[in-house]
Amino acid sequence: MTAGQLSAMLVALGEHHDRGAFRQLFDHFAPRLKSFYLKAGTNPQMAEELVQETFTQIWRKAHLYRPDKAAASTWIFTIARNQRIDRLRSEKSFVYKDEDFFASKLVSDEEQTTEVHRNELVERVSKAMALLPSNQAEIVSMAFYDEATHAEIAQKLSLPLGTVKSRMRLAFGRLRNILSEVEA
Amino acid sequence: MIHHHLSDEMILAYAAGSLSAGQAMVVACHLDICPACAARVAEAEVIGGALIADVEETAVSDDLFNQILVDVDEAQSFPEPERTGASASGDLSSSSYLDGRYVPRLLANMIGDDFAAVRWRTVGPGIRQFVLPVPSSEGEKVRLLKLSPGFVTPDHSHHGSELTLVLKGSFSDDTGRYRVGDIQDAEEDMHHQPMADTEEDCICLVCTDAPLEFKGVITRLLQPIIGI
Ligand SMILES: [Zn+2]
Ligand SMILES: [Zn+2]
Question: Other C-beta atoms within 10 Å of A90: how many?
């Protein structure tokens, strides 16, 4: 399914709790989200529970989804991340519980971005990730998948903390350049 | 006008959900009034989405979808209340920001919206603190610091990081001037001596992940008392 189709499903779900759309979103994202949770070190059973909770949240919050603000995968990532924090890192959940991030004014309303742009961004970022030097890509994915803090990454890779931070900075800098090219 | 923003690596780690609780709190409080950094977080979340889109698939149980339908049907009978405008994320017009102080939502949940009502503890001449009940990770401390006008923080270096958000007044050190909404990320090897540089108190939200190291005998003697 294309990013545009996924966006449309999420909109349909938000507008009238369309069960067909919900099923399609589930078929597409559930096996990916299960991998996402497994990578954070959960056992398969807990990974499925987290998938279950995430989809319940998706159902409840779909009306807050705005296709001009985020691709479906981006929005679902934020729900999944918050769900993971709720379950595995309860000390942080008080910070991230404001799930309707994209519904808030944080992303400025004047921004002239279209749905097409949002979906294109994700594709570009995917391609760009594959082109990152492997030592930068490794650190980015450890942060996103393993939920490892800077200090934990430094420890795991036996690197100075400063090196971890500068690699993150380099990786994000590169990816942001690619994003700004698309948005310009 | 905010002049000092979050670093790329902080933005990325916040979007990934990988910051410690204390650091995430300070970051969230800055995002509350900084649309520029909030837009960067949204960009970083695109990376998270791209990783989800590209990850290999793991088969899920056959009846998982049906279980979810049971859950949502139950949820349906207890609909979520419509949101009121209560969440004023990024609302720059909020009066508390305009009158030269800023109480972020997360913080207001803990202390209310009046700094005068905080139960400040004196830690030394010209410096008061309130340690926040944040369930943080080991070694980490999140607190409000209140510096009297002209107060010069003892010269110190950092073993760990020190993330500071100005909520009222301003301070200066060698790296620049920090006003309401500005953030300072003092890295491990940084060495500085911040000074409250106006006629009013300077109130900051500070997260440290290791005790600071002070220069000079007097301040070293004071350290156990100050506890910072
Ligand atoms: Zn900022
Ligand atoms: Zn310092």
Answer: 11
Domain span holding position B66: 8-76
Cβ contact (<8 Å) for B58 and A107?
Answer: no
Q: Is residue B176 part of a domain?
A: yes
From A38, A70, A175, residue closest to B58, measured CB to CB: A38
Chain A residues close to B60, C-beta within 8 Å: 30-31, 34, 48, 51
**ipTM field:** 0.91
Distance CA A174, CA A178 (A): 7
Q: Decide: helix, strand or coil at residue B179.
A: coil
| List of domains in chain A | 3-105 (1.10.1740.10)
Closest-approaching ligand to the CA atom of B11: 1
Say whether both B72 and B176 belong to one domain: no
β-strands B156-158, B141-147: how paired?
A: unpaired
Per-position pLDDT tens, chain B of length 228:
899 999 999 999 999 999 989 999 999 999 988 999 998 998 899 999 999 988 999 999 999 999 999 999 887 766 665 554 444 444 444 445 656 788 888 898 889 888 999 999 998 889 899 999 887 777 889 999 999 999 988 777 777 789 999 999 999 999 999 999 999 998 777 888 899 999 999 999 999 987 666 666 556 555 655 556
Contact A172 B9 (CB under 8 A): yes
| Burial letters B119-136, b for 16+ CB under 10 A, else e | ebeebbebbbbbebebeb
Cβ-nearest to A125 among B46, B60, B65: B46
Is the pLDDT at A104 greater than 50, yes or no?
A: no
B129 plus B201 within the same structural domain? yes
pTM listed for this prediction: 0.89
Residues in chain A with CB shorter than 8 Å from the CB of B24 are 92, 95-96
As for how many domains chain B has, the answer is: 2
> Per the CB < 8 Å rule, is A94 touching B135?
yes
The reply to whether B130 and B172 lie within a common domain is: yes
Contact A52 B58 (CB under 8 A): no
Phi and psi at B198, nearest 5°, equal: -130, -175
Q: Which of B51, B74, B142 to mutate: most A Cβ within 10 Å? A: B51
| CATH code of the domain covering residue B123 | 2.60.120.10
